[in-house]
């Protein structure tokens, strides 16, 4: 049951009603018939311009319907997707294009200046495709998307391979971004495992998969909050399309809770994708303030991945969307599906506690399984399916993807304890661990305790040099109404060991998150005066 995404999307397009909405971006709406037509034309244009199977196709763009049309065309033409962070400046863009060996770049016109600055130093890129609006003219080296996706829309007669590649570039915690290399087959296998766990039928081929999608009355109608140039938004968006559903992205550059709720209301969406409290808390606050403004009764699943998600915020969302479950995914670009924490109106699971799947182990320093309930801290290892490698980095590949007991595991560096009942308590990424006089302190543990303090909207914790202890704990909190440092410290003393308490505690009214919801530790350190 190894599927190529290009084959699967073509099969779905043949069975889904042409007038069903596939993509929505603000007032722009693309139905399945238009998606099929445009992506077929664009795929053919890429091949005519020399794209060969396996060559890399880079995406440097904000959320839009065009992004998803181009991704479908990339798959159909057997290109290999490469995501580029739209916040990157010219030098960083040039690095990704060179590191990935990209031959095609799709980009948003609003990012034209950075693209023009790298055009002469990116000799491998043969095709430059611009979409969107911006002052001035499209550069002479580039073509407009609407010129390439026009035509008769005829399907491609192209043999594809489930082993075709899919890159997810990840910033990680140190060094330059790395391309995590997946195959379509392995990403598809993860999706099928999720479907099996939900009791859904497992297809034997792409035609049957498309038939299942077409017959599903509860097909995914997904509102994407974060950027789709990051893994959480990207995988959720294409997963909705491969389920025969629709994807709604939000037109504002930064997340606005009102836009997300407008989209849920308009499309009667049943899935919402967020990145932890940075997205979920503003939604809860908007619903608290105006509970009758939006109809959110259709919501069934709220998905978060990439950061920890506070229990109280989940509870507030479920108060307004009682049929929904909050699904907190423990995943990373190189280890998708490590665990999941579920909250519903019938029961809750504490923040940072995850139910472990059959692929997941927690290993001690000798690569032995940590005994549940022992209190031993171990490193999380995830069995197959896993990525092929880090592109052009054999050392990091060997360090992260290791064979233990005859099984190849992904070990990206997340630490956890295993409770007596087998659930995990996440402690954080080992590379960010603070070592204070020999005591190991995981920033996420302190952050979660801080976010439960009155008047604390968000918190980031990091280590700073200390002449006596080697490192000390520092924290920056985004303060809300009712914040007082003394009360926050009293709360922490009641919940954490003394050596974990921040020696430096700084309050700010500024957001501590990047637009994708991920922690901006550089900004926090600057606010604390320790950058």
Describe this structure in words.
The chain has 531 residues and is an alpha/beta fold. It is built from 16 helices and 28 strands. It has a 13-stranded mixed β-sheet, with helices on both faces. The longest helix has 17 residues, at 32-48. It is globular and about 70 Å long. The protein starts with a helix and ends with a helix. The model has no long low-confidence stretch (mean pLDDT 92).
Q: For the report, how would you describe the main beta sheet?
A: 13 strands, mixed
> What separation lies between the terminal Cα atoms?
50 Å
Number of strands: 28
Estimated share of beta-strand residues = 25-35%
Q: Could you estimate the helical fraction of the residues in percent?
A: 25-40%
Q: Give the spatial strand order of the biggest sheet.
A: 2-1-11-10-12-13-14-15-16-23-22-18-17
Radius of gyration: 23 Å
Mean pLDDT: 92
Q: Which structural class do you get from the secondary structure elements?
A: alpha/beta
Question: pLDDT under 50 segments (min length 5)?
Answer: none
Shape: globular
Concise account of the structure shown:
This protein is α/β, with parallel strands linked by helices.
Provide tags for this entry:
alpha/beta; 13-stranded mixed sheet; 28 strands; 31% helix; globular
Write the layout of secondary structure elements.
Elements: H1 5-15, E1 21-25, E2 28-31, H2 32-48, E3 56-60, H3 65-76, E4 80-83, H4 90-100, E5 102-108, H5 112-118, E6 127-131, E7 143-144, H6 145-148, E8 165-170, E9 178-183, H7 184-197, H8 206-215, E10 221-224, H9 231-242, E11 246-249, H10 257-267, E12 271-274, H11 277-289, E13 301-305, H12 311-320, E14 325-332, E15 335-343, E16 353-356, E17 360-363, E18 377-382, E19 389-390, H13 394-400, E20 401-404, E21 407-410, E22 414-418, E23 424-429, E24 434-436, E25 439-441, H14 443-451, E26 456-466, E27 470-479, H15 485-495, E28 504-508, H16 521-528
Parallel strand pairs: 1-11, 3-4, 3-5, 5-6, 6-7, 10-11, 10-12, 12-13, 13-14, 27-28
Antiparallel strand pairs: 1-2, 8-9, 9-19, 14-15, 15-16, 16-23, 17-18, 18-22, 20-21, 22-23, 24-25, 26-27
Helix pairs in contact: 1-3, 1-8, 2-3, 4-5, 10-11, 11-12
């Amino acid at each position: 049951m190894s599927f190529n995404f290009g084959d699967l999307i073509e099969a779905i397009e043949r069975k889904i009603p042409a007038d069903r909405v596939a993509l929505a971006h603000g007032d722009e709406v693309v139905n399945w018939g238009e998606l099929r037509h445009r992506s077929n034309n664009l795929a053919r244009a890429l091949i005519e311009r020399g794209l060969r199977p396996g060559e890399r196709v880079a995406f440097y763009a904000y959320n839009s319907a065009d992004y998803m049309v181009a991704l479908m065309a990339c798959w159909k033409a057997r290109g290999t997707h490469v995501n580029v962070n739209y916040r990157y400046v010219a030098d960083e863009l040039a690095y990704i294009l060179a590191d990935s060996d990209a031959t095609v770049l799709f980009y948003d016109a609003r990012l034209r200046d950075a693209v023009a600055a790298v055009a002469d130093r990116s000799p491998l890129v043969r095709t430059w495709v611009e979409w969107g609006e911006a002052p001035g003219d499209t550069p002479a080296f580039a073509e407009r998307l609407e010129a390439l996706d026009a035509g008769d829309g005829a399907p491609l007669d192209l043999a594809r391979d489930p082993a075709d590649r899919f890159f997810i570039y990840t910033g990680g915690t140190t060094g330059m971004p790395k391309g995590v290399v997946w195959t379509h087959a392995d990403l598809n296998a993860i999706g099928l495992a999720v479907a099996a766990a939900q009791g859904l039928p497992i297809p034997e081929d792409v035609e049957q998969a498309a038939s299942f999608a077409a017959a599903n009355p509860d097909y995914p109608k997904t509102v994407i909050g974060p950027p789709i140039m990051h893994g959480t938004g990207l995988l959720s968006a294409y997963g909705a399309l491969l389920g025969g559903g629709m994807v709604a992205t939000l037109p504002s550059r930064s997340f606005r809770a009102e836009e997300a709720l407008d989209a849920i209301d308009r499309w009667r969406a049943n899935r919402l994708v967020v990145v932890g409290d940075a997205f979920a808390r503003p939604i809860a606050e908007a619903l608290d303030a105006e509970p009758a403004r939006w109809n959110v009764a259709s919501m069934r699943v709220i998905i978060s991945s990439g950061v920890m998600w506070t229990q109280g915020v989940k509870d507030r969302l479920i108060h307004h969307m009682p049929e929904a479950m909050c699904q907190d995914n423990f995943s990373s670009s190189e280890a998708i599906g490590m665990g999941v924490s579920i909250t519903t109106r019938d029961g809750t699971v504490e923040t940072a506690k995850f139910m472990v799947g059959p692929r997941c182990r927690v290993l001690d320093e000798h690569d032995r399984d940590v005994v549940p309930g022992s209190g031993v801290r171990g490193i999380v290892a995830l069995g197959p399916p896993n990525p092929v490698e880090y592109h052009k980095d054999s050392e990091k590949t060997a360090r992260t993807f290791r064979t233990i007991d005859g099984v190849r595991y992904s070990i990206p560096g997340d630490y956890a304890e295993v409770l007596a009942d087998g659930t995990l308590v996440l402690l954080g990424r080992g590379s960010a661990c603070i070592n204070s006089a020999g005591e190991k302190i995981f920033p996420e543990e302190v952050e979660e305790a801080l976010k439960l303090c009155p008047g604390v909207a968000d918190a980031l914790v990091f280590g700073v040099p200390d002449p006596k202890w080697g490192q000390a704990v520092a924290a920056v909190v985004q303060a809300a109404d009712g914040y007082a440092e003394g009360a926050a410290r009293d709360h922490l003393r009641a919940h954490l060991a003394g050596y974990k308490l921040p020696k430096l505690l700084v309050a700010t009214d500024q957001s501590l998150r990047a637009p994708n919801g991920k922690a901006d530790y550089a900004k926090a350190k600057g606010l604390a005066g320790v950058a």
